[in-house]
């Protein structure tokens, strides 16, 4: 979020759209790869929707072409997009992977979560008495 705000202040909207487009394409492709891997490793798992593997494999072929073409035509934009993605790695390790955090770090994370929920209007009741509207 902070990186996006800085980019919006420094760059133009077209560049930001290019960064986000590259990130979206990359995430879509990784998701489809995950779908194919799960179909091979766990073929008996329940799936509400099951498609022929030809469809995701065809999608991946086009995805690879678009991704390679993007990397070739605009390497700087793709590099910045990758840097934006990698800014989430420290957040993952601090918030999810690190299990035995000091209480001060837990309080900081909880207060940042609460602040973000209030900012985005996504605060849900945490139990207790229901409020009347």
Describe the structure.
There is one protein chain. The protein is mainly alpha-helical. The protein has a domain at 1-73. The chain is built from six helices and no strands. Helix 2 runs antiparallel to helix 3 (54-73), helix 2 (13-41) crosses helix 4 and helix 3 (54-73) crosses helix 4. The longest helix is centred in the N-terminal third of the chain and has 29 residues, at 13-41. The protein is extended, with a radius of gyration of 20 Å. Mean pLDDT is 82; it is low at 128-133. The chain crosses the membrane at residues 16-39, 51-73, 79-98. This is AAA1 protein. One of its GO terms (biological process) is D-alanine transmembrane transport. Keywords: Membrane, Transmembrane, Transmembrane helix. One of its GO terms (molecular function) is neutral L-amino acid transmembrane transporter activity.
Can you give keywords for this protein?
133 residues; mainly alpha; disordered C terminus; AminoAcid_Transporter; membrane; neutral L-amino acid transmembrane transporter activity; AAA1 protein
Put the structure in a nutshell.
This protein is an all-alpha fold.
Biggest sheet: strands, sense, closure?
none
**pLDDT < 50 stretches:** 128-133
End-to-end distance, in Å? 32 Å
Give the amount of beta strand, in percent.
under 5%
Number of helices: 6
Total beta-strand segments: 0
Content-based structural category:
mainly alpha
Mean pLDDT: 82
Helix proportion = over 70%
Element order, helices and strands? Answer: HHHHHH
| Morphology call | extended
- Cα gyration radius (Å): 20 Å
């Amino acid at each position: 979020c902070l990186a996006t705000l800085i980019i919006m202040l420094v760059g133009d909207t077209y560049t930001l759209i290019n960064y986000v487009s590259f990130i979206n394409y990359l995430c879509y492709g990784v998701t489809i790869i995950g779908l194919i891997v799960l179909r091979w490793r766990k073929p008996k798992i329940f799936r509400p929707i099951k498609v022929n593997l030809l469809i995701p494999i065809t999608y991946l072929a086009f995805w690879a072409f678009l991704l390679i073409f993007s990397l070739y035509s605009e390497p700087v934009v793709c590099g910045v997009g990758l840097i934006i993605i990698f800014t989430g790695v420290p957040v993952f390790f601090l918030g999810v992977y690190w299990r035995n955090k000091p209480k001060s770090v837990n309080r900081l994370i909880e207060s940042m979560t609460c602040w973000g929920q209030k900012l985005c209007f996504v605060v849900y009741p945490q139990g207790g008495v229901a409020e009347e509207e």
